[in-house]
Design brief:
mainly alpha, single chain, elongated, 253 residues, two-stranded antiparallel sheet
Length: 253
């Protein structure tokens, strides 16, 4: 039986230390600490690694979960992942060669990101400004995903950000594919035959216009792979969180 909490050095501890009795000082479950030797007070975030406290590096960040997970929040995440998984699979199934994905609701927000990218990258010259539209609509979800992982220690939220990045890549793929035989109706109302087309300009500037359809197909495959990876990542995080569901944690003092 522990006389002093190995984590926060709180004393005295309850006489009954059977699971799920907690330390009055830091809330750690005493039965999980066993007879561990005393250590200095923890100053880091209350999050721990999902697969073992000894892990370090990228893997520890990607699979980090709280010591205790709120049951209601967990159920919400499960429902959210189910929605994004079904939606993502539906988008993956759409034919990129006839730009079917561009009829989906998600294309509207991505188009806003795309146009914002043209404006933001205008400072770096015409070629980068043209590329900036497609680039920014992929980069922005990745930036959000990285912020959720780095700042919030939230790998599940980061997996949703990665999902959006994958969908963004799939959304760009039809635009690339269309450059060789322009059929898409652009914002100006015309096609690449009579209006400015980002990817005709970009491919032609590097003498790769004849490879446009092949590159578009590769981009679509990459986007599908990213979406599937994001879904698998989110499911893996929830699997780890399920082991630590502990009632209504969010209102505990």
């Amino acid at each position: 039986m522990l006389e002093r909490c190995p984590k926060c050095r709180h004393a005295p501890l309850p006489a009954d230390q059977a699971f799920p009795v907690e330390c009055p000082g830091c809330g750690v479950i005493l039965a999980r600490l066993g007879a561990a030797p005393p250590r200095a007070p923890a100053t880091a975030t209350p999050f721990v690694h999902g697969t073992g406290d000894g892990e370090v590096g990228l893997r520890a960040w990607l699979w980090r979960v709280p010591e205790r997970v709120d049951a209601t929040a967990f159920k919400g995440r499960v429902a959210l992942l189910a929605v994004f998984a079904l939606w993502g699979l539906r988008l993956c199934w759409m034919d990129f060669r006839d730009a079917e994905l561009m009829t989906s609701f998600i294309h509207g927000p991505l188009l806003v990101f795309h146009e914002a990218g043209h404006v933001l990258f205008r400072l770096f010259g015409e070629w980068v400004a043209v590329l900036g539209g497609s680039l920014f609509q992929v980069l922005l979800p990745l930036i959000l995903s990285g912020a959720l992982l780095w700042k919030n220690r939230d790998p599940f939220g980061a997996s949703i950000g990665l999902w959006l990045a994958g969908v963004s890549v799939m959304d760009v793929a039809p635009y690339m594919y269309d450059a060789w035989e322009p059929r898409l109706t652009l914002l100006g109302g015309g096609t690449g035959n009579d209006s400015f087309h980002d990817w005709i300009y970009l491919f032609d500037s590097v003498n790769q216009l004849h490879h446009a359809q092949r590159i578009g197909a590769i981009a679509h495959a990459v986007g599908v792979a990213i979406v599937l990876l994001a879904i698998a990542w989110g499911a893996g995080v929830l699997r780890l969180q399920r082991r630590r569901v502990a009632g209504n944690v969010l209102v505990e003092r």
